């Protein structure tokens, strides 16, 4: 049975859910206001396997998300959509201490049994490293991860939503509100109200703004992330791996001489979207300390977006507690380009009345969303 489904949020989660639900034969409307969208500001590194985070359910989602890209690429190719958003560039993890590189190597070897997408793992000699990155300024220990990739979030969303629109779905670049009428949730834009069979809230960091006016307590906070885009004269840099030094600043050669340097994790700045030139310059400086080539680079763009975090840093997805027609996902934090398509797909399966492919009980929204005020609406 064809369902009418509204999705608030057209970032990576909402767009993937929209894509698969369109494939399943449903009628989709995506509402995406777009301001501060994390997906379009993201660096786009996909390399979750060597993380030392102890949260096993997060790792299952992140490794599952990295693996899921293969299915997404196959599906989009089958649907004749552009897949140039994904580059299996490899990743290079730099460490000051050889023992830290060895430790990561062992973690990778252990996890590769269940995650063959990791591919080759290799500790590079100084000579190999210099050959790969001739302008690297310092001695570093480097672990190469063949399966590492980079994803252009904006282009990915564009491909997904292009398919949705081609199949008769609609994408409205407007802010939508959720209202409750006769015990049923409905979408409202200005004074226009529309009912749907299913509503999916994929609003990233802005889930509290949608649910709190309706009496929900939402365990989500925003975190500001800034990223600098530099232009170098190395126009053939698209083949280079993404570079993950120690600390929070990564360096991504993305082709045509462009290099992403970032990103910041500014908890105290929350939803603020102003570009802070001092912080951008600090980021660029730390990139330059690593790569001399960046000293002559020109700053051509600054990106800023808001990540969503829960208090225990875990993402969630599933039905809104006690609701059978409203689904949601949020809290993807700094790895949402990795987990996002997988989570969007799980939401699509649920809305289509199917079982999820990852145990949803570990990621229930119930842990993060509480209905507290029955008097509102
Ligand atoms: C600077 C930066 C770098 C990052 N780098 C990486 C990385 O290298 N690797 C990685 O895996 N992840 C990375 N991330 C994290 C990743 O980008 C996010 O976790 C992910 O994009 C979140 O996707 P989302 O769909 O949940 O939310 P979003 O992409 O934020 O999308 C939510 C959308 O909902 C819309 N919306 C909200 N409320 C409404 C409303 N009421 N009506 C209409 N529309 C609404 C918003 O405008 C927005 O467009 C990075 C994030 C940032 C900010």
From TrEMBL:
The keyword Lipid metabolism does not apply. Residues 5-348 form the FAD dependent oxidoreductase domain. GO terms for molecular function: oxidoreductase activity. The keyword Oxidoreductase applies. Keywords: Flavoprotein, Oxidoreductase. Pfam families: DAO (PF01266). Its cofactor is FAD. GO terms for cellular component: cytoplasm. Belongs to the DadA oxidoreductase family. PANTHER family: D-AMINO ACID DEHYDROGENASE, SARCOSINE DEHYDROGENASE-RELATED. This is FAD-binding oxidoreductase.
């Amino acid at each position: 049975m064809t369902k009418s489904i509204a999705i608030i949020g057209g970032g990576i989660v909402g767009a993937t859910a929209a894509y698969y639900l369109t494939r399943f034969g449903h009628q989709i409307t995506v509402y995406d206001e777009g301001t501060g969208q994390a997906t379009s500001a993201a660096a786009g590194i996909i390399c979750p396997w060597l993380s030392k985070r102890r949260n096993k359910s997060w790792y299952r989602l992140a490794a599952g998300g990295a693996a899921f890209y293969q299915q997404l690429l196959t599906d989009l190719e089958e649907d004749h959509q552009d897949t140039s958003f994904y580059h299996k560039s490899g990743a290079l993890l730099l460490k000051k201490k050889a023992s830290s590189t060895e430790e990561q190597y062992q973690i990778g070897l252990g996890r590769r049994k269940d995650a063959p997408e990791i591919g080759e793992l290799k500790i590079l000699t100084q000579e190999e490293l210099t050959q790969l990155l001739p302008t690297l300024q310092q001695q570093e220990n480097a672990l190469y991860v063949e399966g590492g990739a980079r994803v252009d979030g904006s282009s990915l969303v564009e491909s997904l939503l292009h398919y949705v629109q081609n199949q008769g779905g609609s994408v409205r670049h407007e802010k939508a509100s959720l209202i409750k009428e006769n015990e049923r949730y409905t979408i409202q834009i200005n004074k226009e109200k529309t009912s749907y069979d299913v509503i999916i809230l994929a609003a990233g960091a802005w889930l509290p703004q949608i649910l709190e006016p309706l009496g929900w307590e939402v365990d989500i906070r925003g975190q500001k992330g800034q990223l600098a885009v530099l232009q170098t004269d190395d126009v053939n840099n698209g083949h280079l791996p993404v570079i993950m030094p120690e600390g929070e600043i990564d360096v991504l050669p993305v082709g045509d001489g462009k290099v992403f340097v970032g990103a910041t994790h500014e908890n105290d700045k929350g939803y603020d979207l102003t570009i802070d030139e001092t912080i951008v310059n600090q980021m660029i400086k730390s990139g330059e300390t690593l790569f001399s080539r960046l000293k002559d680079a020109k700053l051509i763009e600054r990106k800023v977006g808001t990540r969503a975090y829960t208090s225990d840093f875990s993402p969630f997805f599933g039905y809104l507690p006690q609701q059978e027609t409203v689904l949601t996902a949020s809290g993807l934090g700094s790895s949402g380009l990795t987990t996002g398509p997988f989570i969007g797909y799980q939401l699509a399966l649920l809305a289509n009345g199917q079982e999820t492919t990852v145990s949803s009980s570990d990621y229930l929204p119930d842990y993060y969303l509480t209905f507290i005020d029955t008097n509102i609406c």
